[in-house]
UniProtKB/TrEMBL annotation:
The lineage of its organism: Bacteria, Pseudomonadati, Pseudomonadota, Alphaproteobacteria, Hyphomicrobiales. This is Branched-chain amino acid ABC transporter permease. It is found in: Cell membrane. The chain crosses the membrane at residues 12-33, 54-78, 98-116, 145-162, 190-214, 226-252, 267-285. The keyword Transport applies. Signal peptide: none annotated. It is a multi-pass membrane protein. Its main location: membrane.
Length: 289
């Protein structure tokens, strides 16, 4: 019984960290630059596609592929920021944002299927991450431990970036009053572009390291987009602690629910979402609008 509980808790923690790494990028876009970016799942899928291609086609190592695929995803999407997203920052209504970003999602899905085919894209793990790891009191999958470490590093790194750096100060100033920030000499267009790149990079990073739990396949962007949105809504847009708490809570409920009553599917997951949103309309740790 104890072994089962520990296994469930470990799997739930790994799953929650995958949700966090991907969803925090969407949370940043929605909370800081006020864009409901439904293409975020497509950017995570793009990172997975590029990583799969580099690993299986070019034969690069996993640790080289990981930063290379994230950088390539950011580079490919930056023209979209310049041509399309820049028109949305803090100025247009949510319906316009939703229609444009869902259009981008379908374009990316169609392009990926045309170029690489409508099949599952596995991301092979190196031998150092694919086996079990003996912790002394029990054995755990090494890759899931790696995912947990990536999630914790992401949370700490983001907090330091936004709260302890000049970039974070400039970003908060631009968000609170962009006109005043510009009058003081801040290049808000560059700050928003950097924020977009950060959000896309996080999505791609999560798509790659979490591919074992959320497999990269042709309709990945549509299949998981609702889940990423739910994490942001439950945690509160723009809140790093909120996104982390929501990811861990929902990951635990989903994992345990599917173990105890698999025939109910995602019933427990969405029941918890309804309850949390009803109690905390702005998210568990979100700011009141």
């Amino acid at each position: 019984m104890t072994r089962t509980i520990l296994s469930l808790a470990f799997d739930a923690l790994a799953y929650g960290m995958v949700l966090f790494i991907i969803s925090i990028g969407l949370s940043i876009m929605m909370g800081l630059v006020r864009v409901v970016n439904l293409a975020h799942g497509a950017f995570a899928m793009m990172g997975g596609y590029i990583a799969s291609t580099l690993l299986r086609g070019a034969g690069l190592s996993y640790l080289v592929t990981l930063p290379l695929a994230v950088a390539a995803t950011v580079a490919v999407t930056l023209p979209l920021e310049r041509l399309l997203y820049r028109r949305l920052y803090r100025r247009t209504d949510p319906l316009t944002q939703i229609l444009m970003t869902i259009g981008i999602t379908f374009v990316i899905i169609g392009t990926a299927n045309y170029l690489l085919g409508p099949t599952l894209k596995p991301i092979p793990l190196p031998a150092s991450l694919s086996g079990p790891l003996d912790l002394g009191f029990r054995t755990v999958p090494t890759h899931r431990l790696f995912v947990i470490a990536c999630g914790l590093a992401t949370a700490l790194g983001l907090w330091l970036l936004l709260e302890r750096t000049e970039f974070g100060i400039r970003l908060r100033a631009s968000v609170d009053n962009s006109d005043m920030a510009e009058s003081l000499g801040l290049r808000t267009d560059l700050i928003y572009a950097a924020t977009f790149a950060l959000a896309v990079g996080l999505g791609a990073f999560g798509g790659i390291v979490g591919a074992e739990l959320l497999p990269i396949e042709p309709f990945y962007a549509l299949r998981y987009m609702v889940t990423f949105l739910v994490v942001v809504s439950v945690g509160g847009a723009g809140s790093i602690p909120g996104a982390l708490a929501a990811s861990l809570l929902l990951g635990l409920i989903d994992t345990v629910g599917k173990y105890v009553a698999p025939e109910f599917g995602e019933f427990f997951f969405y029941s918890a979402v309804i309850a949390v949103v009803a109690i905390f309309p702005n998210g568990m740790l979100g700011r009141a609008q």
